[in-house]
Amino acid sequence: MANAVKKLIPLLDRVLIKRAEAVTKTAGGIVIPEKAQSKVLHGEVVAVGNGSRKDNGEFIPVLVKVGDKVLLPEYGGTKVSLENDEKEYHLFRESDILAKIEN
């Protein structure tokens, strides 16, 4: 998995995010059906691009870094599947990320 993610480098202000897993069981052990599960709106930053460019060609750095936990919009992003990895990744523009979650 790590090798496949290292090969994928987002361009400009794009950020590759691994969405958190949906809760499939309650604390009491009851299995939640797929349709009843809420959409996961947070994830972890896996890779970031260099940032967007100004008119003079300078880069505006991306505000999030690898390992940050972020809050995502309900819709948006591009689904990305990496070879030899069953996890689901999404590619977002930095401006689409709603917030950074502090620990």
UniProtKB/TrEMBL annotation:
UniProt keyword S-adenosyl-L-methionine, yes or no: no
Entry keywords, A to Z: Chaperone, Stress response
Domain of life: Eukaryota
GO CC list: mitochondrial matrix
Any GO molecular function: metal ion binding
Chain ranges passing through the membrane: none
Family designation: Belongs to the GroES chaperonin family.
Name under which the protein is recorded: 10 kDa heat shock protein, mitochondrial
Organism for this UniProt entry: Vanessa tameamea (Kamehameha butterfly)
Gene: LOC113394014
